[in-house]
Amino acid sequence: MNKLLIANRGEIACRIIRAARALGLATVAVHSDADAGAMHTALADEAVRIGPSKPAESYLKIDALLAAARATGADAVHPGYGFLAENEGFARAVVEAGLTWVGPTPESIEAMGDKARARALAEAAGVPVLPGSRRFPEGDLEGIEAAGDTVGFPLLVKASGGGGGIGMRVVDAPADLRKVAEATQGMAARSFGDGTVFLERYVRNARHVEVQVFGFGDGRAVHLFERECSIQRRFQKIVEESPSPGISAATRARMTAAAVALAEAVRYRGAGTIEFVVDDDSQGFFFLEMNTRIQVEHPVTEAVTGLDLVGLQLRLAAGEALALRQEDIRQSGHAIECRLYAENPARMFLPQPGTLARLVLPEGMAGIRVDTGVRQGDAVTPFYDPMIAKIIAHGADRDAAIARMLAALARVEVEGLVANAPFLARTIGHPAFRAGRTTTSFVDTHKAELIG
Predict the structure, then answer these.
(1) Are 212 and 273 in contact (CB under 8 A)?
(2) Phi and psi for 438 in degrees, rounded to 5?
(3) Is the pLDDT of residue 166 over 80?
(4) For residue 138, what are the β-bridge partners?
(5) 178 is catalytic
(6) Does 267 share its domain with 391?
(7) Pairing with 273, which of 230, 310, 313, 402 sits 20 to 30 Å away (CA)?
(8) What is the number of domains present in the chain?
(9) Count of CB atoms within 10 A of residue 304's CB?
(10) Domain range spanning residue 28?
(11) Spatial contact of 68 and 93, defined as CB atoms under 8 Å apart
């Protein structure tokens, strides 16, 4: 493996380029018309245009990405997260083209990408799962009321083909189930090309806790501890931390063991995340899904373990026999990540595209890491995720990490568009957050105080 094509954009493309450079790999960036001259294209050794601004005409075009690899002589592809990162067809096309795919096998992506099938695999591996239903293909809702009664309310209608937060809808009452299921099927068909949905019990007083795993593809895997990701809006994460402030040592041990068991059962290769919902009252935990890619919040794990997850991905893909043993992985201190977005919390967190007329990020502060893919003068366009940067604070304990994060957020300056920095500062400084009362209802419960 000598030259890496990064099939992505923004901050994750920049992050991968830095890891590749540290390993002596040449890098190729790809870009749409909207990203011509973007930060990731400037950092890479080469940059190739792959199409117009819309993702469907550029970052989601497998043929264009493979053509860019051929044109530049790239012999490996890293998908980052989002776009085609969990598309087994893309992974398979890369492998069939004779290139190295930096990620799990296409078979693992396919197996874990179907949420209903992933539930079955988790259950077979002895991982606790929430009550759920059969799959309902688009246009087929026969028996859904009976399925809802069996699963129990409140419940989630979930798109089987993926989608994270945008693929889920909460239903509190039986009378609403059919209408919500029809709407979710239509959304899933338009967004993912698969209108299949299923039902799953919804835990209202819950924490969202995920375990970072790393598999070697031979039936062995390790965990790199957990991250709590309960601070969300629209089921999408905005603050993550490790360790979780809300689970016991016994729960942590059982959850990490379950995650490793599932990763080993599917002979997982590379970095992946197994997500759980934790009942905050009983400490019971249940499998949600597996993300077969690097996560947005991976720097939290890197901060507390001292490991370079992207570097490990690249080294494993290159054929290196990694000497990574569970007993050698230690957790040190506490880390918190905040996602700085161009969005308006007062307007239902709607994206706020525009030009970054002024951008000051807290780089160079002790215990602070900043990952970004934009610079002052760049545009946040309506075509892609409106993330400006990720700010990661690491301290000796949670209080120290909170203090560092608040100091870092106070340094942020964004002009030219609306950003969520004040909202993040109010969240981190809120008494309930400081006390570790960080369930998934946190934002809704404290919205008036957080939006200001």
Answers:
(1) yes
(2) -115, 65
(3) no
(4) none
(5) no
(6) yes
(7) 402
(8) 3
(9) 22
(10) 3-102
(11) no
Residues 223, 324: one domain?
A: yes
Q: Which amino acid is at 165?
A: G
Lookup: tokens for 71? 């044109």
Mean pLDDT value of segment 102-112 = 95
Question: For position 40, which CATH number holds?
Answer: 3.40.50.20
Are 221 and 240 found together in one domain? yes
Clarify whether residues 440 and 316 are in a common domain. yes
CATH code of the domain in which 189 resides: 3.30.1490.20
- Report the pLDDT averaged over residues 199-206: 90
297 in the same domain as 376: yes
Residues 85 and 174 placed together within one structural domain of the fold: no
Percent of the chain with pLDDT over 90: 91
CB-based burial label for 21 (10 Å; 0-12, 13-18, 19+): middle
The pLDDT tens digits for 34-59 are 999 999 999 999 999 999 999 999 99
* 306 and 392 together in one domain: yes
> How high is the pLDDT of residue 114?
82
Question: pTM for this one?
Answer: 0.90
- Flag whether pLDDT at 162 surpasses 70: no
Residue 93 placed within a domain: yes
Question: What token pair was written down for 31?
Answer: 């870009």
Tokens 């890098």 found at = 27
Q: Is residue 119 part of a domain?
A: no
Residue 113 lies inside a defined structural domain of this protein: no
Three-state SS for the chain is: CCEEEECCCHHHHHHHHHHHHHCCCEEEEEEEHHHCCCHHHHHCCEEEEEECCCHHHCCCCHHHHHHHHHHHCCCEEECCCCCCCCCHHHHHHHHHCCCEECCCCHHHHHHHHCHHHHHHHHHHCCCCECCECCCECCCCCCCHHHHHHHHCCCEEEEECCCCHHHHEEEECCHHHHHHHHHHHHHHHHHHHCCCCEEEEECCCCEEEEEEEEEEECCCCEEEEEEEEEEEEECCEEEEEEECCCCCCHHHHHHHHHHHHHHHHHCCCEEEEEEEEEEECCCCCEEEEEEECCCCCCHHHHHHHHCCCHHHHHHHHHCCCCCCCCHHHCCCCCEEEEEEEECEEHHHCCEECCEECCEEECCCCCCCEEEEECCCCCCEECCCCCCEEEEEEEEECCHHHHHHHHHHHHHHCEEECCCCCHHHHHHHHHCHHHHCCCCCCCHHHHCHHHHHC
